[in-house]
Amino acid sequence: MRCGRFSGLLAGAALLASCGGGDGGGSGGTTTGASPPPTPTTAAVGCSLRDRQDWAFAQLNEWYLFPDTLPTGLNPASYSTVDDYIDALTANARAQRKDRYFTYLTSIAEENAYYNTGTTSGGFGVRLGYDTTNRRVGIIEAFEGAPALAAGLDRGTEILAIGTSANDLRATSDIIAASGTQGVVNALGPDTAGTTRVLRVSDASGTRNVTLTKADYTLTPVSSRYGAKIITDNGVRVGYVNLRTFINTADPGLRAAFQQFRDAGVSNVIVDLRYNGGGLISIAELFTNLLGGGRSTSDVQSYTTFRPSKSSNNETTYFAQQPQTITPTKIAFIGTGGTASASEYVINAMIPYLHANVALVGSNTYGKPVGQIALDRSQCDDRLRVIAFALQNAAKQGDYYDGLATKVEASCQAVDDSTYPLGDPREASTRAALDFIEGRGCTRIGATASIERTATPFAQSRELLSPARPTTAQRETPGLF
Predict the structure, then answer these.
(1) Is pTM, for the whole model, over 0.85?
(2) pLDDT higher than threshold 70 for residue 30
């Protein structure tokens, strides 16, 4: 099972694997073991377009959380792909903001590779943000072991132009003006190792051309540079942990972070989930347990509820103490519109217990209180992620389709300031989180828009660049390229 956010956030729960991310996430199931990737062909038995469409409809008809929204009499022959057919089947729920492309078809092999190891195919290893008003694009995060960071490109780098060579560079502002953000996606080329692009960039080192070649790499969920540390601010020690994505390999990184906090006697924590689109529910449960010192095994962490015909799958999850668990006095969760699914699960689970000692810092989250199950058709390498359950915290709060800003008892509005590294006390959201923990005042999220301005326009909009049909990695790590 798994959960997620926009096209890249999901939740899952039942049969094979569950998640709690943006358009994806999960707690186990089929994502727990590596297996040889299927090698289906269009001629394989049961793998014609119509076969796959009929199979997808049957799964939705049986498992979909909102069966009353499924249209009757929709002709599969009117759609040239399975994806388009699924989008049509879920259009009514989407219009009601219940399923914003959370139900989709993906690859079994691709998903297993990502959730088990963080394997990412054919990328530069950056997370991109954009500002359509000023038509600017920039790097808001760069990943270790990937081409961009190796070439000296990091958070705060603006991409001024893109080309296949220095001779055909095209300004990103012109690309957006002509083709929108999808034009930028197209200009960056296919997600294939070996794809080369020339980027004209601007950062603290000046303006220059950089040639990058896409490569396969492994995404580290907790950064080795800034993923976990202790910040001393005005004599107060605060734990800081940044989780990029909820995948299996996040387990040791999270445990190590909280062991560091535990050893240092830290009781105040900043949890940075500002771009985290979700992932495996099992990791979300672990994260919540690590924050759950003082909770007993009778304390509810979450309720999982399926449609009435599948109510036998309903489940109550309780807290389970871990060796690295700490007992926080205050928690500041940094979030943005890119924070979804499994990330929202962790935040929501802590609200009934810490109340106003839990704050959302930054801006409102995406709003995905539902999760997907994974349903496989192995001969076609098809995995259908179906929204099949709803998630609630111990107070039965789970109606945050419009984000968590109105559900938390405390919040502090702040920009995502890419002029400083993530976790730097000078960075605006980190600074606001420290202010909350140390009892200084702040402006509640949504009270005014005036604070939503910074010197880095491509970050201020909090929009993460995403293709129309994202890969598994892009669903769970919004903005990934």
Answers:
(1) yes
(2) no
